[in-house]
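Table S2 (continued). Query chain:
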Amino acid sequence: MKKFKGLAMLGFDKIGWIEKEVPKVGPTDALCEPLSISPCTSDVHTVWERALGDRHDLILGHEASAKVVEVGALVKDFKVGDKVIVPAITPDWEAVESQAGFSQHSHGMLNGWKFSNEKDGTFGEVFHVNQADGNLAHLPDSINIEDAVMLSDMVPTGFHGANNAEVAYGETVVVIGIGPVGLMAVAGSVLRGAGRVFAVGSRKKCQEVAKYYGATDLVNYKDGDIVDQIKDATGGKPVDKVIIAGGGLETFGQAVKLIRPGGIVSNINYLGTGDAIEIPRIEWGLGMGHIRIIGGLMPGGRKNMEYLAQVLINKRLDVSPLLTHRFNKLEDLEEGLLLMKDKPRDLIKPVITL
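Corresponding output:
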């Protein structure tokens, strides 16, 4: 194969199929052929909300399970034919930032996020993976390839929200936004021992799945201010943790109005538009409320994928309710991506199995 085709961002508001030269594989790298792929709202932000700036002929996508078709001479743990989980974030592990514990930002802010940001992504007949031994994980036989693609981004991002919030036994947690990432934040909070979990979202399908994952209370932002609704439910008491997985810049103000002194607001939402976040001064304790606000890109790499695979293998988590729309041809990617853009009410996540 000298050339391959992929679904690309042609420019702002434009996608289309293009051909490119097959990437060269360096000594520590791998070339992979997708087995399952899934469009993400992040792709929507990139193309239609101009979140990353202009990109021309950049192949989209960052979620995949795959088969290895070529490895570099120095790759030790993977060979041609291996089935693998491919994380959405593939850092440079020798970077100083990685050594400091922030591999997501290796060599600069968000630079661990390479697919469909710095280089072509997974929406093609083949794709390149840097530092294969550190950024691929073997796909266990007991995990089907549809479920495996949820380990690329949705599960680790949602769980990262719960981890950054330091959710503890018995705590009351609010998850704002219950698309697939928010649903995994609900599941992650429950696994960490949350006592009460408010799930904020308007789509009935997402509410049903939030209940399945352990949400105790459902809040529809279309029914009024979510702060008022949640405080009515708690008798005016603040909550321990808030995880932001959707909404706009206004959600930070709502989160601070809900949180107790010493609480944590954990953001995993990709803020695709807007200029500044406003924090309410009084509710923030005049700046002295010991309220922590943290935003974090999910950790990538092999270890995280291997640990999350154990969660599925041992049936601590069932990701199948996330997969609402199924396709079986590479060409179906375009329809799947437009579904993520338009978000019909019965959608959570499309998956293309090849």
